[in-house]
């Protein structure tokens, strides 16, 4: 009975197609034939099995496409999350650098503006950037900075 219902629905679907395949046309002809021979019945049974298999393949293909689209969407979401996390991490590093400028007294903590002329501050930072790593002043600066950080993080 279930097979008859599926076949009835499928035949209606095939009749609605603008360009059914040759195999589907043959299935429609044999299904509508009132007097079938044994050979016709065997061919019809084989065509019905083939059509059912084709329908299952079509559903499987649609499901595979749906899963692929879902995976692509998940990949896009993951990429966006990763990109957003990288931006947050970068922003946090910028906030940390600004906090160091505040601790050093180079930026006013209330207004968050430079405590010195911008050109003067930039010039001093350029001077610091040009001091070689092995210069003893840098070791002294590091000791003083580490001490202030330790004091502020207590």
Descriptive report:
This is Conjugative transfer protein TraD. It comes from Nitrosospira multiformis. The chain has 154 residues and is an all-alpha fold. The chain is 79% helix and 0% strand. The chain has helices at residues 2-16, 22-32, 38-103, 118-129, 136-152. α2 (22-32) crosses α3 (38-103).
The helix tally amounts to: 5
Ends distance: 81 Å
Give the averaged pLDDT, no decimals: 91
Helix % is: over 70%
Number of β-strand runs:
0
Largest sheet: none
The global form is rod-shaped
Radius of gyration: 38 Å
Poorly predicted regions are none
Content of β-strand: under 5%
Structural class: mainly alpha
Question: Which characteristics define this entry?
Answer:
154 residues, mainly alpha, 0% strand, rod-shaped
Short précis:
Residues 47-74 form a coiled coil. With 154 residues, the protein is an all-alpha fold.
Would you spell out the secondary-structure blueprint of this structure?
Layout: H1 2-16, H2 22-32, H3 38-103, H4 118-129, H5 136-152
Helix pairs in contact: 2-3
